[in-house]
Design a protein that fits this description.
By secondary structure, this protein is an alpha/beta fold. It is 27% helix and 26% strand. Helix 1 runs antiparallel to helix 2. The longest helix is centred in the first third of the chain and has 15 residues. It is globular, with a radius of gyration of 16 Å. The chain starts with 9 loop residues before the first helix and ends in an 8-residue tail after the last strand. 44% of the residues are buried. Bound molecules: S-adenosyl-L-homocysteine.
């Protein structure tokens, strides 16, 4: 995605402030050090991924409603989860919960290919359209249930879940390549632990918690 042409554009100034103030220099939380994550968040027009009614809030550090009970995640959390996932240009990534498509767009600029599943058909269509309009060609959005994963395209080097299950779905752990990594909010509806799961080359699973987060629950079909 090309950066906006003029730095005098108020949207570009707001976005720069979002990344510099809310994300890179976050005092309360861990600082995000991954320069690639900060770079793509500087050039991705978050305001185009939210409904028109929410647009003036697009560069504040908060989640915003996008309809159908879904939210676009808080920018700091998008940065944190992208940082923890550590995708590279060689990686094939599965995302569960396309929502607005914003996190998909961020991942697509960091990875080789992104496969994104969304259970709400209208959101899946909308996310696919905006990704196409933004010229992102290495992300595909499919309507489907994240609990099943995307077996036809497995295994994945990286998996990110952006809705909260009460436990990491077994199919997703199975579809993770040995040596791969998964990031997910796991827990009750009110709040969750952000879990970082690594699958060793021998298939052994190691997990650690990276703090508390609040996501919409992952729905069962
Ligand atoms: N990554 C999104 C966050 C969206 S909120 C963004 O950046 O905007 C979580 C999304 O997960 C919602 O759109 C919700 O509809 C979707 N979701 C919930 N349960 C799901 C499931 N079982 N499978 C796939 N998507 C699901």
């Amino acid at each position: 995605m090309a950066p906006d042409s003029t730095t005098a554009d108020p949207v570009v100034v707001q976005r720069e402030r979002m990344v510099a103030h809310h994300i890179a220099e976050h005092r309360k939380h861990n600082r995000i050090r991954n320069q690639q994550v900060l770079r793509v968040m500087r050039i991705t027009p978050r305001h185009l991924f939210v409904p028109a009614s929410e647009r003036r809030m697009a560069y504040e550090d908060c989640a915003l409603p996008i309809g159908y009970g879904a939210t676009i995640s808080q920018p700091y959390i998008v940065a944190l989860m992208s940082d923890l996932l550590a995708p590279t240009k060689e990686h094939r990534v599965l995302e569960v919960g396309s929502g607005s498509g914003y996190q998909t767009a961020i991942l697509a600029q960091l990875a080789a290919q992104v496969y994104s599943l969304e259970i709400v058909p209208e959101l899946a269509q909308c996310a696919a359209r905006i990704l196409r309009d933004q010229g992102i060609r290495n992300a595909v959005v499919r309507e489907g249930d994240g609990y099943q994963g995307w077996p036809e395209e497995a295994p994945f080097d990286r998996i990110m879940i952006t809705a909260a299950p009460t436990a990491i779905p077994a199919a997703l752990i199975e579809q993770l390549r040995p040596g791969g990594r998964l990031v997910a909010p796991v827990g009750a509806a009110s709040y969750q632990e952000l879990i970082l799961l690594d699958k060793g080359g021998d298939g052994r699973i190691v997990q650690r918690s990276c703090g508390e987060v609040v996501f919409v629950p992952m729905k069962k079909e």
